[in-house]
Design goal:
Protein name: Peptidyl-tRNA hydrolase
Catalytic activity: an N-acyl-L-alpha-aminoacyl-tRNA + H2O = an N-acyl-L-amino acid + a tRNA + H(+)
Function: Catalyzes the release of premature peptidyl moieties from peptidyl-tRNA molecules trapped in stalled 50S ribosomal subunits, and thus maintains levels of free tRNAs and 50S ribosomes.
Organism: Gracilibacillus caseinilyticus
Strand order of the largest sheet: 2-3-4-1-5-7-6
Oligomer: single chain
InterPro entries: Pept_tRNA_hydro, Pept_tRNA_hydro_CS, Pept_tRNA_hydro_sf
Length: about 190
């Protein structure tokens, strides 16, 4: 069993904001297969599905970004998942819009959702899919930028990038993470 976790903030106020790009990738996977986040437990919404003969959990924590690990940790404990069986998808200011980067470890890079996951898991050793949102061009704060919605120009690049990230997660269900990194970090 593998677990794909999209980070974001709950509620319509944050729907389709840059900080919710992790939710958007999970939503793409749900839409592709006609799945729904049918379970509400562990401070999150999740589902357990079968893809290519493999069981997967898709999770969207409902804790607000900065406490995301408080949803992930109890779910991992209940389903007896190791950190290697988890991939966390989150927005990254240091990558250009739409660029994805898969890694098997790393720090939080100032991302409080990842910081929470590291704190709750007690390790930095878990798979990540960093999804580039770029940096603000205008003089606005980082908080206002990440909590802002994509503009029309950005949305043009966003859709294929979300599809690419979802493709990478589908590949990971049946392939080692290292191979997926080699194939998608181009």
């Amino acid at each position: 069993m593998k677990c794909i976790v999209g980070l974001g903030n709950p509620g319509s106020k944050y729907h389709e904001t840059r900080h919710n790009v992790g939710f958007m990738v999970v939503d793409e996977l749900l839409n592709r297969h006609g799945w729904q986040l049918s379970k509400g437990k562990f401070k999150g919404h999740y589902t357990i599905e079968t893809y290519e003969g493999e069981k997967i959990i898709l999770l969207e924590p409902q804790t607000f970004m900065n406490l995301s690990g408080e949803s992930l940790r109890p779910l991992m404990d209940f389903y007896d998942l190791t950190p290697e069986q988890v991939t966390v998808i989150y927005d990254d200011l240091d990558l250009p819009l739409g660029k994805i980067r898969l890694r098997q470890t790393g720090g939080h890079g100032g991302h409080n959702g990842v910081r929470s996951c590291i704190d709750q898991l007690g390790t930095k050793q878990f798979n990540r899919l960093r999804f580039g949102i770029g940096r603000p061009a205008s003089p606005i704060t980082v908080i206002d930028y990440v909590l802002g919605k994509f503009n029309d120009k950005e949305k043009v690049d966003l859709e294929p990038a979300i599809n690419h990230a979802a493709d990478a997660m589908e590949a990971w269900v049946t392939q080692p993470f290292q191979k997926v990194m080699n194939d998608y970090n181009k």
